[in-house]
Amino acid sequence: MRLLRRPFTVVAPCTLVALATMTGCPADDDTDVSGTAGSTGTPVDTSGGPGSTGAVDTTEGASSTTGDPMPAMIPARGLHIDWVEANQGVGVPIGQDGAWVGPQARLARLLQHRITLLRAFWTLEPGFEPREIEGHLLLEWPDGTTERLVQTKMIDDDAFIGDLSRVFFWGIEAEKAVPGLTYAIELYEHDPAYADGAPAEAPYFPSVEGEPVLVGIEDSYQLLKVTVVPFNYDDGGSCVTEPDTSAETMQLFQDQMFMMNPLDRLDFTLHEPVDWNTPLENFGQLNSYLSDLRFEEGAPPEMYYYGLVDVCSGGLGDAGGQAFGIPSDPTMDLAYQRVSSGLSLDPDWSAETFVHEVGHTQGRYHVACNGEEGGPDPTYPNQGGDVGEWGFGVIDFGLRHPTVHKDYMTYCHPVWVGTWGWNKVQPFVETLSQWDAGFPGNGAPGIEDPYSGSLLVGTIGAQGSEDWITVPGGLGRDVPGDVAIELGFGDGRIERRPAVVRTLADTADRQIVIPLPDGFDRVTSLARVEDGQRVAIDRARVRERHTQRRVQR
Q1: In order of start, what are the domains of the chain with their CATH numbers?
Q2: Which of these ranges, 42-56, 366-380, 488-502, has the smallest mean pLDDT?
Q3: Does the pLDDT at position 395 exceed 80?
Q4: If you compute the radius of gyration of the chain from its CA atoms, what whole number of angstroms results?
């Protein structure tokens, strides 16, 4: 089958010079994240951006080294900047206790070409008189270009991370978030009446170094490739549906994936619809088909496939979605597991399910929240699935609350990602990105066969369905167990191979895998041997794709 693709706009965050209005999330009684006043830089129009909050006029109090000359500035007194955070989805302190935080002490990487929210938190000294103070962010790029962004705040209390009116904040545009960018922060009086008695120099951050320091943007190549395959479903009865693949819903899929993953680029493809004309019992049937399809179409090993279907119900096999396994490592041999699918229901719910199921195929297990998540990761650090720190949406400009929002691998809502989950996925993204032809130094690699072996993969549904395919790949770190596959050859020889058995996430369905022997074309019979019983496998119904190993670039 020829791969037919209908492209959508790759998720690139909408242009941002500054942030002045953010839509917050539900908050505790003592937390206000609804918005703020003041300016963060030069004007920006976000009315056309995905998830935007409308046109924002940020001209009041704004200035730049590229505009008119700055008026005489009066150094502020009675307060200082204590710490600074950069946030591209999760918060990363880049300044603490007046000093720079170096790369070895960072909580997460900062990626290039990704919108970055910078927040500076002040501490008031005894006797501070409430008044307007200007926070000046000084940026300098490796080519010598400089910029001064000014925000004016009415300050009458110490800073608070959950209230944008009680912090200085600035936005760095995606195209300006590059390695070598430095920053410093100065504080000035806004009212000339405070000129008398002003200190000789403005409070400066970082106070220890006394000169600009690196923001810490890294030379990254963090790419995620995903193909969404819509299924036009006809169960032979009353359910005849097409999933929602409208431009708005597909953009929501992209936005959610980009915001909650450590990416600086997203390659998103909408596949031509596939007709499915038999009743579905579980997602394993779709995922087995998709795993076969990815090799039929020569998809590169870094590509994720995701099926989207409407089955006229809120669940399929007691699940809203399912992954075709949780790869133990980011290896080419486990490409057959980079497959998942979910229901097409409410767009927000479906987009969350998309992120959740692809998360499984990025090596993530469930996170416990409401007690219904099967096989939760025992190493997750936060009680109840809390993300644990304030998050920031680089597309919708919204703050996410550390305890209201739960990790996207839970079954709770609303969802976001914390530093732990962000760092869990980052090595997977980094490794798979290196296989892309555009990765620096790769040129245009012509991979004839990136896989070390071949596999027989069976999907055993909890309700009794079985689906068997052969694919290129290897077992990874999984160890065979008590189940075996018996192979009968045409010459009468019988070979029994112990199988890896996995319980698929979100259901009780199982996956049974063995390495294929040489000369599988001479195998005339198959059987599954389990608990002392021998269950025949219809050899004629095994879909063979293990010989299709060439990657289409």
Answers
A1: 44-218 (2.70.50), 223-433 (3.40.390), 454-544 (no CATH)
A2: 42-56
A3: yes
A4: 27
